[in-house]
UniProtKB/TrEMBL annotation:
Keywords: DNA-binding, Repressor, Transcription, Transcription regulation. This is TetR family transcriptional regulator C-terminal domain-containing protein. It comes from Prauserella cavernicola. Pfam families: TetR_C_6 (PF13977), TetR_N (PF00440). One of its GO terms (molecular function) is transcription cis-regulatory region binding. InterPro entries: BetI_C (IPR039538), DNA-bd_HTH_TetR-type_CS (IPR023772), Homeodomain-like_sf (IPR009057), HTH-type_TetR-like_transc_reg (IPR050109), HTH_TetR (IPR001647), Tet_transcr_reg_TetR-rel_C_sf (IPR036271).
Amino acid sequence: MVRTIDQEARRREIVDAVWRILERGGLEDASVRKVAAEAGLATGSVRHFFGTQAELHAFALRSLSERVGERVRRAAAEPDVRTRVVAMLTELMPLRDDTTRELRIWLEFVHRSRFDENLAAIVAEQAAEVRRFLTHVVTGLGELGHLCPTADHDEVAAGLNAFVDGLTFELLTAPALLTRERAFALLESFVFGHHMRNAAE
């Protein structure tokens, strides 16, 4: 058990090193050698976990969604419906310093995925996972009476996805136009106001 924990901690150190390098200079700088130096490890130690640079990058990208998923699961334990739903959704948005950092890093991976089929497949997989999650949220809202009974849950989830992505993009690229507080209020209004209900009718 101790060895497993140590290995997981070492992988996290390596992933954190990839992220720091990416923030400074882009994913192309995150070679196994440079990541090892950033993490204060021997190159062989990194290669023990990741045989190639592609494996390292793929793991670092997947680690982003795993961290988000962990926080979403914790938020799902909130008993109040309104608080729970908004808390889960905000984990997908740059409303805190940690989520802002993660989403900026994710955008770097998205940029790189145009030239890397392996990363592109992971990005697509993550997008599909988010859509499934949002469909689950919408289905739950429907069961609680927050949507009209005839609502197409897939269609409403697609609209919610677009709304969340739109707020996220503006927060990351034009923060002078939208504060975190305003984005939070807009999200809450969209989900629990008349917007989603009207869109479904």
